[in-house]
Amino acid sequence: MLITRVRPPCPPAAAFLRRDRLLDRLDAAVLRPVTLVNGPAGAGKTLLVADWLARGGLPGPAGWLTLEPSDNQPGTFWAYVREALQTGVAGLPEEVGAPARAEHVEPSLLIRLAAWINAQPRPLVLVLDECEHLDNLRLAEQLHDLVRHTAGRLRLVLVGRSEPLLPLHRYRAAGELAEVRAADLALDRAETAAVLERHGLRVGASTVEAVHHAVSGWAAGVRLLALAAQDADDPEAYLGRIDAGPGALSDFLLAEVLRTQPAPTQDLLLRCSILGRVHPDLADALTGRRDGRRILDQLHQDNAFTEALPDGWYRLHPMLAGILRLHLRAATPDRVDELRVRAAHWLADHGQYRAALDHAAEAGAWELAARLLVDQFALGELVAGRDAPRLCALFARMPPSEHAPAAELVRAAVHLAHDEAATALRIVERVEPRLPADQTPLQLAAAFVQTGAARLLGSAPLADRAARRARELEDRAPADLPERHPELLTLIAADLGSALLWHGRLDEACRALDRAARAPVAPTTARLRHDALCRLALIDYLRGWPGRAERRVREADEEADRSSLPPDSRTEVRDLVLAATALERDEVAEARESLHRMTTGGAPEHDPVVTLGSSVIRAKLHLAQGRPDTALRLLEETRRHELADRPSDWSRERLAVTACAAHLAAGRPQAAVAVLDEVPTRAPDSVVVAAGARLAAGRDEESALAELRALRDDPAVGSATRTRALLLLAQADAGHDGPDSTRLLTQALATAEPERLCRPFRESAPWVRRRLRHLPQLARAHSWLPGDLRPPARDPDPDPHRGADGEPAPPTEPLTEREREILLCAARLLSTQEIAEELFLSPNTVKTHLKSVNRKLLTANRRDAVRTAARLRLLDAK
Fold first, then answer.
1. Residues 116, 228: one domain?
2. The pTM is what?
């Protein structure tokens, strides 16, 4: 443990300016669970919060932790948090425990820590300084859970240059976040004058105005100017020169900083100005000398222009570094690129490939930059990483003359990221013969691009070959590849699953998508895992299990919430599945709303599965609204234009079966049969529709009935498909005066009831209505059916939530703990938005859970659900 990291710094006594207005802001801010102090380097964030702690008057004891990049391992982070609390608060019992490994922390430790915080007589304040280093998604989730489970007893103060991964938008919406931003941290004119005075500079109002205007209230800039002017014979005249023009401040500081430094120091400062942070060994690599450590340490000791960091690195003041870079480029432009290439090699050799890649690209060393991306197995970051837009824009500048294999593969990945699959594939085909067989990174990069292109082009054979090759290469890749860059293999699995789905190979698609859904938790895999779960939900729906599909979407939503995935970046497949399952329950308005979200959400999907699925569900919506011919026109347009260049037997089957249903709805059974003449019907739901068309047309009835009986008796067939098969068998039996029609209808209703699948009965509405008119008891037993399908009740309907003995009957399926939490909020008359804010969920997730509650409790709205749950004692404290 570095003890200095768990103690706040001491503000310098002589030059430090206490800022009462901001201290008062922090006093008010800490009354909320989370406070964010956010601003650029040199804004005075750290010293402000340290002074606030030193002044006292907090709501309770406080702990301090200065974060470092190495703290991104859960065990390390929580060990330091524990030490910070023990140092600042004391009394932390041994029973809370400590992480045993750097890379892991037991959830039970966090539960014990939360319990200890909740048991304290006063709230605890925990300050996390330099929180921009906290970029591990799992850590952010754990910290968020601690904030949530301590319910305001922990007051978290986050100090940093950028926003942490915590769900700040939820805290803000719930009124649980206080913010001190760059505009608040900027010095006003009085404070600018006070800082100058602290440095012994008593100057007039015009000079103060000039300084304030030049640095826009930037605290470090004022201090730099004050330091530079201290030795001047006439400080006022000295500072007055900065008002000469836009570049005057740069020229002024450059001259005054470098003028007093010896030649080796000037040379090191100029060369290292290309870096954000500099290590003494890296400085030696850039200068060709061995004096980097001595010079950097001396600069740190002498003045404020260089800051020593806890990990052995140094940081030049950003303002000074920017000025030095401009001077270096103006004086020796050719040297800048050479220095960047040298820095790139050193950084790459020392495990910092991201910084190395940026320097190589800035120097125009594109082959080196591309090779760094490929060799680190990081090509997937162009498609799935948080930095994907910047990386794509960076490599879009790569000139066409770069033909090295790594450069070509990166270029192909950029095209893939822009959904230009054919172009990406042509590039890989051109470069693949030149790839050395023993170069695993290059080979795996080619396989990655091929599977991505296969998904967009709808080519399962290509995806199969590429994914099989990737699995072979995975054995030759570094063992820590899934941990360092999980997005690469996750993308390959997800793309394979989508391509297999496009060809109707559902079992194989499930296996591939399940691998993607179980990918390691990381920011780069958050959307991929969410998308894979939603595609698995789509397969559940296609197999006739709408209830399973909806539960899988809820699981995907919870995964997205845990990963703080913004609603507008979630997959379109989610809303596609919700629209489809809503239609199965005959909830037309909800289906329409889900389809509307697909078109108004984020960027559109460009893979054929989404295009086909959207067209088919829209056509089914038209059918539900009584517009079969509109549905047929939409299906034909999709077949001829949107999917003309990438058809599959499965896509033709989906379109034909939906068109068959449209013809049946329009009363054209012969046309319905004709649509299917040249299309194979393999899927169970397709077999049901085809059998219904043949029965309606009076063609091959015995074969159709045999197929329906086989589906009825197959336990793997989904509830929606079995319901339709039973209904068709019931109608056929009734048409032949058979004795089993009532039994088959009863079975159909029992199969549909748990998921309230009204749509199959709506499709056979005339027959169902006539039949139930003669079976009033059966109709009353299934009050979940739409009222227009049931005969008018002569007696008041019995309470469906009470058994024969009058006691409350249990729900058809147990409520989950999350559903119970949402019901408790609904019982307090909270709106959907208020429930979302209280439970840190998205409003769409709350709506999905409420729909599930209504389905399980056989209720129509949240008010009835609350009443029913109360009567069933489901809301009692556990």
1. no
2. 0.71
